[in-house]
Design a protein that fits this description.
CATH class of the largest domain: Alpha Beta
CATH architecture of the largest domain: 3-Layer(aba) Sandwich
Radius of gyration: 27 Å
Largest sheet: 10 strands, mixed
Amino acid sequence: VGYADSVQLSYDFAHRRHATREEESVPAGSDPELFFSTPADARLQSILGLQTYNALRSFDFLVSLDEVDPERLAVTGGSGGGTQTILLDALEPRIAASFPNGMVSTSMQGGCACENACLLRIGTGNVELAALMAPKPMGMTAADDWTIEMMSDGYPELKQLYSMMKQPENVLCESLVQFKHNYNYVTRRIMYGWMNEHLDLGLETPIVEIDFPAITDEEGAVWDEGHPAPTERGPKHEQSVLSWWNGESEQLLEDCLGQSATAKGFDQKIRPALATLFDLPMPETSGVSVKYSAPVEHDSGATVVSGVVIDEARRREIPIRKWVAKSDSETLSAGTAIWIHSAAGESTDTPEWSDAFAAQLDQSKTVVVIDIAAMPTDASEGKQRTNPQPRRASAAFTYGYNRPLASTRCADVLAVVSAFQNPPGGVSLVAPEGSAAYALAAAAIAGPFLEDAVIDVSGFRFANLLHQDDEDFVPGMVKYGDVDALAAWRAPYALMIRDSGGKNWATTKAIYQARDASDQVRWPASQ
C-alpha cells in the first residue's frame, strides 16, 4: 500500500508542480517555495530520497524494540520495494540478509519517480548498486519482465563478485521466467528459505504459508487518541517537509558555506560534492589532439584558423578558432587566452568578434575560441533544441541517468585547456556572459593549469532557474553553494569575477582568505 501511495504522490507532485512552477519567477536572493520541482531538484530533494530516509529511520525504530534481535534484521520488497531494498542494502550496515525482488536488472531500473533520483545511475545501474550488499547474503528471482536476462546478464557478474570476496554461497538468483512481474507465492517460498538459512531461524523447510486471521480495523489503526493524525496534508505538508529538509542540509553545511566557511569544512563536504556534480577529471594532454583547416586573414590583420579539439576518451570533437594577432615583438611572451563563445544566432564565420574580443586579442596575442554555441545541446537528438518543452515530469528520469549539459560543456572547456598547455606566457580562461554555469567549474577543476580565469557571471544564479530543461541546470548546485561555491572551488588560484547581479560572495572570500590567497580573487573596481 505504501508503494502504491508513493507512486500516486510522486505522479501528482511532479505533474502539478512542473506544470505551474516554470511560469513563476524566483527573485534573486529569495527563498522559493519548495515543492517537488526544479527548486527541490536543485537541492537534491526527491521522492526516492524521502522514502529512503524514512526506511532508514524505520530501522532505528526496529532496533529500539525489545523483541527485535538487532543482529538478525532483514529487508525484502518487490518491484518498487525491490528498488528500496537495493538502496537500503547499500546504505544500512545493520542489514544481515536481503531479497530485492523484481528490480535487479541491467535493462530497466524502475519506472516511477519514487524509484529515481538525480545522479543516482549515471554510468551505473541496479546490478552494480545491488552489488554493494556484498558479501552479505542477497537473493532474488528472474521473471518474465525486465529481469528475464538476469541468469546470463547480471547474476554471473554478481556470482563472480561474491566468489572474489570468498562468499559465493551468499548470492542467489532463481529463474522463474514462467511468471510475469510478480512477488507471488512461488517467489516468496524462495525468499522464506533464504531468510531461514541466513538468519539462522531454525524453521522446518520447506516453509509453507498458512491462513491467518486478518487484524481488526482497531488493531491496524495508525492514528488514535494518543497519536492523532496530522492536520497538515497535501501541498502544504509537502512544502513544510521539504523546507525542513532544506534547513537540515543548511545546518549540516554551516561550516562549509557563507561567511563561516572553513577550509576544512569546504574540503570535507563541498569540494567532493562539486566534483561529484560535475564528475570530471582534467584530461591528460596525451588524450587530446587538435586538427586545423587552412588559415585565413581577418579584416583586423589577425590570422584565423578553424579546427577541432578531439577528446579521445569522450569521443567528442569541440569546434575552435585560433586567432593570432598581427606579428610583433610581444607575440611570443604574451600568453594564450581561451575564450568561450556561447551566444547562438550569429551567422558570420567569426561570431565572437567584438570590441571586447579585439581588446583581448591585442592583450594576449593568441586567443583560442571554444565555439560552445556550435555544439549540440541535446545529445539524444544530435541537434540544438529550440524552445525546449518539458520531456518528463520528474528531473530524475533525465538526470538520474545523464550528466547535465553544463557538465558536458565543462568537459569541453577542460579538453581545450588540456590541448593548449605550456605556451609561453601560460594559458588563461575568459568566459563572457552566458557561460558561468560551466566556466566556473572548469576553472576550478583546471586549477594550476590556468594562469588566470576571468568569468562574467552577470547575475546568474542556479537558484533562479525555473525549469529542469534549462541548459544551465545542474541538480544539487543550490544545495552545495551555487556560483559562490564554484568560485571558491578554484582557490587559491587567480580568479576575476564580473557580476552585476550582486556583491555577496561570502564563501569565495572566506575560502580564498583561509588559503592565504585573498589577493588572488578580484572583482572589477566598478562593482
